[in-house]
Amino acid sequence: MAHLLQHKQIDKAAWDACIEASVQGQVYALSWYLDVVSKDWQALVEQVDGKYVAVMPLPVRYKYGYSYLQQPLFCQQLGIYSRNKLTTEQITTFLDLVQKQYRYTSGYTFNTANSGPLQAIVQPDSYRLLYTHYLPLNPPYEQIWKGYTRDRKYNLNKARRERIRVVQSNDIEPLVQLFKQNVAQKIYGGVADEAYQMLRQLFTALVEKGTSELLYTVSEDGDITAGGLFIFFRGYIIYIFNAANAVGRKQNGRTLLIDDIIQRNAETKQVFDFESPMVESIASFYQSFGSQPMPYYEWHYNQLPLPARLFKNIRKQLLLFFIKQK
After folding, report:
1. How many CB atoms lie within 10 A of CB 184?
2. Alpha-carbon distance 41 to 75, whole Å?
3. Which residues form a coiled coil (predicted)?
4. Which of 125, 140, 190, 291 pairs as cysteine with 135 (C-beta 3.0–4.6 A)?
5. Residues 3-20, buried b or exposed e (16+ Cβ, 10 A)?
6. Are 206 and 238 in contact (CB under 8 A)?
């Protein structure tokens, strides 16, 4: 039987051992990662003889006197992680416990490995099907390259002719600045300074754990024009964060960065996870590398008292209205 644990009650060593050994293991669910992106996270934990055998991280927030779940930044998926194959009964028990404890979630996302077991119990009014994109890297690079679309091959060759260099770095600040100056203003509501600080803290943790690679494209003049941060864990390479300036976009810098990672990791048992957002143009770009869509579920429900529920719905509709006007 699973039990709710407050943050201070979680045995971090037992937790990480479970994530490492789980069928679904992802870097997002490791304790040190969660400590950065969701400081006071809680969890449902099922134990057998003191060993964690199934867990569900819960990114908890507080507002209007209620605790609720909100998917953290830099954390596309969470869900249930188990040492053995999950049963429908286990999943149902976990979800029931969550709903009893938390009155609301704006969107909690499960990992791709949970998609199969969840199919039997999801209801259309509470779950939304999302997609990321995976590219297996076990074939030789030449074979993977053949799977690129015609336009992607053309743009890659064009990037190679631009005489830009791909360099590795341990300095996240140029990537932060590229995003601030070239991407942030396109995001409705802007980007809080806390998000950049979280990225810096996350990068520090990733470097300490030796699980990341930060790449930049550098022009002939020595200017950084594009950057990408990649996380390596349990056979997956996650394209966690990226940005480019106008020159980098024109020179297809991000295409060059992604191809560099693919080329150096071809003929391995790894999978490149593009961590796609639900934006058609971006998904199309990622598919141009030959990747395939992988489904995962987003869970949302609202059990707040009627006045609070109506307020949340009105606020959501207003937000959608203003987004459409931009």
Report:
1. 15
2. 13
3. none
4. 291
5. ebbebeebbeeebbebbe
6. no
pLDDT at 307: 52
Q: Tokens representing 58?
A: 């819960």
Closest listed residue to residue 206, CA positions, set 171, 235, 231, 242: 231
Q: What is the pLDDT of residue 313?
A: 54
- Cβ count near 280 (within 10 Å): 8
Q: How far is residue 199's CA from residue 192's CA, in Å, rounded to a whole number?
A: 12
Residue 91: is its pLDDT beyond 80? yes
Burial 241-256 (b: 16+ CB within 10 A, else e): bbbbbebbeebbbbbb
Contacts of 270 (CB under 8 A, 6+ apart): 137, 138, 232, 235, 236, 237
Distance CA 280, CA 275 (A): 13
Average pLDDT over residues 204-224: 97
Identify the burial level of 33 via C-beta atoms within 10 angstroms of its C-beta, where 0-12 means exposed, 13-18 middle and 19 or more buried: buried
Task: Residue 253: name the closest of 225, 231, 273 by CA.
Answer: 225
Rounded Cα distance between 56 and 79, Å, is 6
**SS3 for 82?**
strand
At the fourth CATH level, which superfamily is domain 2-130+296-325?
Answer: Gcn5-related N-acetyltransferase (GNAT) (3.40.630.30)
More confident residue, 215 or 123: 215
Q: What is the pLDDT of residue 324?
A: 39
Fold equal for 2-130+296-325 and 138-269: yes
User: Class of the 138-269 domain?
Assistant: alpha beta
Residue type, 149: T
Beta strands in the chain (DSSP E): 2-5, 42-48, 51-58, 60-63, 66-69, 81-82, 104-109, 127-136, 165-169, 212-218, 224-233, 236-244, 271-273, 292-302
Is there a contact between 240 and 74 (Cβ–Cβ < 8 Å)? yes
* pTM assigned to the model: 0.91
**Residue ranges per domain, the chain?**
2-130+296-325, 138-269
